[in-house]
UniProtKB/TrEMBL annotation:
Keywords: Immunoglobulin domain, Membrane, Signal, Transmembrane, Transmembrane helix. Gene3D superfamilies: Immunoglobulins (2.60.40.10). The keyword Lipoprotein does not apply. InterPro entries: Ig-like_dom (IPR007110), Ig-like_dom_sf (IPR036179), Ig-like_fold (IPR013783), Ig/MHC_CS (IPR003006), Ig_C1-set (IPR003597), Immune_Resp_Modulators (IPR050380). This is Ig-like domain-containing protein. Residues 281-387 form the Ig-like domain. The chain crosses the membrane at residues 25-47. PROSITE patterns: IG_LIKE, IG_MHC. CDD domains: IgC1. Residues 1-20 form the signal peptide.
Length: 402
């Protein structure tokens, strides 16, 4: 008898029945036949398992998490390959368009799909040292939510003219949210600041977002509103909150917006302080004006477009020919008038600093007067200067933002 290439001999014994010895012989023969049969089956099972182990096999496609706009690589492995192995990857988009790309390049006609060979890259590696007949093929490309979500990717590996195909259904692609700069700040009539941020092109729709007010080490959640919209298969978000402008008088005060999406390993955040506000102090075109009232001179320095109302103005003098700079304070020689901030139409503030002195108290060589403005929104103060003389009304002024 032949069984899968192996010869099996079955011996049948015909013995007369009658006495107990004969019965014992028969039973022994039957047991022997059973044991022999089991041995044959065990041998057949061993050879079959060995044959299965050495059979050409292709694993399922291995895929990472897909992130739109980021390079993605799919792996497919084949084992027990002999001879030439051909690989073809097939991408079937959800609109029905099909592209076939092999390790030899795109099978699409170049005039029909001129970009396809550059969009999809296929590699094939044969690793005979790691495992005999082991082949790894990779498909690399940059996925798009609008094109690839809902598509099908297949890997077809042909070995000895017997192709095996594995298929992967693209059920999810994540789109990382993009933070849109700059942050939008709006002033209200009541002096509150509305802060608005935008996140674009994320998928899926679910997003965790919160606003926080931070003074020192502690944080306090701020009420906010969120508006979402759908754009080209992805989602956009705009979130707003309002805080009192008075809080930004403290340079250490911060507003934090924090968001977390499925496409992100960790949450991200954006901090905003008074330095981020767009309303920094500005000096007027002709910064310091001289107003003559008899022998008294008034120097006027106007600063505008700042918020919050936390401006500090200081006056300094430097005698011509000297490098020494001295801060001016009210005295018999100089008077510093108290300045008041005024609200402008754009809800920012302006004020005019005034220094008065007796014209004939100046040195004949002249004196340089410096008006310096400090504000929490500035990294360094801004200043302007004017040179005044005792005998004439001539003067020169200079603006210095550094």
């Amino acid at each position: 008898m032949m069984v899968q290439g192996h010869t099996v001999f079955i011996i049948t014994l015909l013995l007369p029945l009658g006495d107990s010895n004969t019965t014992s012989v028969v039973v022994g023969c039957i047991v022997g036949v059973i044991l022999l049969t089991l041995a044959v089956l065990l041998i057949l099972w061993y050879f079959k398992r060995k044959s299965d182990y050495q059979r050409f096999m292709v694993k399922d496609i291995e895929s990472p998490v897909w992130i739109a706009g980021e390079k993605t690589t799919l792996n497919c492995e084949a084992f027990n390959c002999t001879g030439d192995v051909k690989v073809i990857w097939v991408i079937k988009l959800k609109d029905g368009t099909k592209h076939e790309v092999s390790d030899m390049g795109s099978s699409d006609k170049e005039e029909e799909q001129p970009l396809m060979s550059r969009e999809y890259e296929v590699t094939k590696e044969c690793d005979s040292q790691k495992m005999k007949g082991h082949v790894t093929t990779k498909l690399t490309f940059i996925p798009s939510i609008s094109r690839h979500l809902g598509s099908t990717v297949s890997c077809r590996i042909a070995h000895q003219k017997k192709p095996v195909e594995k298929t992967f259904d693209v059920k999810s692609i994540y789109g990382k949210p993009k933070f849109v700069e700059p942050v939008q700040f709006t002033l209200s009539d009541q002096g509150d600041i509305q802060i608005s941020v935008k996140l674009q092109k994320f998928y899926p729709q679910e997003m965790e977002l919160g606003w926080f007010s931070k003074r020192g080490p502690s944080e306090e959640k701020i009420p906010s509103e969120v508006m979402k919209s759908n754009s080209g298969g992805t989602f956009d978000l705009e979130s707003k909150c309002s805080v009192s402008g008075e809080l930004f008088k403290d340079p250490t005060y911060k507003v934090i917006v924090r968001w977390k999406h499925q496409s992100m390993k960790e949450s991200q955040s954006r901090e905003m302080s008074v330095r981020d506000l767009p309303w920094h102090p500005k000096l007027q075109k002709f910064p310091i004006e001289s107003v003559f009232q008899g022998d008294e001179v008034l120097l006027q320095c106007r600063v505008s477009d700042y918020f919050p109302d936390a401006l500090t103005v200081k006056w300094f003098e430097r005698k011509m020919g000297s490098q020494d700079l001295e801060e001016i304070s009210s005295s018999q020689k100089y008077k510093i008038l108290e300045s008041t901030s005024h609200r402008m139409e754009n809800q920012t503030f302006s004020s005019t600093a005034v220094l008065s002195y007796k014209r004939f108290d100046l040195s004949e060589k002249g004196v340089e007067f410096i008006c310096r403005a400090e504000h929490p929104s500035l990294g360094i103060p801004i200043q302007t200067s004017i040179v005044q003389y005792r005998d004439t009304g001539n003067y020169n002024y200079f603006i210095n933002y550094s």
